[in-house]
Amino acid sequence: MVPYLRVANVFEDRIDISDVKEMHFSAEDEETFKLGHNDILLNEGQSLELVGRPAIYRNELPRACFTNTLIRFRTEASVIPDFALILFRHYMHSGRFRRIAKITTNIAHLGAGRFAELEFPLPSNVEQAEIVRRLSDQFAQIAEQEAAIERGLMQSIAQRQNILRAAFAGQLVPQDPNDEHASVLLERIRAERAERAKQPKTRKTKQKKEIAAVVSQLIDVLAEAGDWVPAQEAFRRCGVSDGALTDQIETLFAELRALDKAGRLAVEPVADEQGRKLYDKLKLLEV
């Protein structure tokens, strides 16, 4: 049995050997499909956007073949493998491979014959090496920037959760010892809501309407959901999202704190597969 690479193993500029299959190759077939160091493999059959996705085989396995779902490009002395890889990545992203691919049953096929007829610019080896050097530096910078962006996004998510946690705990603003008890605040909110329902509707400014809506809708939003709701989604249903007024946000968090102090609010974190916290979800508890 011989390990072999297929489309699922060939990503852009990366060979993934975490899931390698094996099958029997005759001696003749193994000689034909045996991979060598610096062979370039391209996805022959793929989605239209990814057809021709290339990577260099760098002896990731001590012995391996490839199947006809891949195309092998083997360089000669006049072509630096990394230069050919850069060119093929350009062809994939620029749509050059897409223009020669044929689609059958929703799969785009590059075709070894059509691939062999593609133009291949061939500067001197010195120029190829300089192109590879410059682009490799740029690729490394791009990878660092992407990693920094990913770290920034994760930090933003964590910071958002810290703000929410501080808001639930009443730590966003200094606490006044003379503040009314949570149960009293909730009762006053209910009374004000009932009183407003009795009064005839009058024209109000947009800002006052929105603030009143936040106060009157939060309990209703959680009660209507009847189950867990992501905190951000609950806020959105209350009219508080990006760009919301400070008064709206403070009013919302005041009611959240009141619900929490009254034992009416359950808060539970949601994490990803690595255990990193993504967000909090809320649920209204029965009295």
TrEMBL record:
Family matches, as Pfam families: Methylase_S (PF01420)
Domain Type I restriction modification DNA specificity span(s) in chain numbering: 27-145
InterPro entries to which the protein is assigned, alphabetical: Restrct_endonuc_typeI_TRD, Restrct_endonuc_typeI_TRD_sf, Type-I_RE_S_subunit
Domain of life per record: Bacteria
Listed SUPFAM superfamilies: DNA methylase specificity domain
Keywords: DNA-binding, Restriction system
GO biological process: DNA restriction-modification system
Molecular function terms, GO-annotated: DNA binding
Keyword set includes Metal-binding: no
Family of the protein in this entry: Belongs to the type-I restriction system S methylase family.
Name used for this protein in its record: Type I restriction modification DNA specificity domain-containing protein
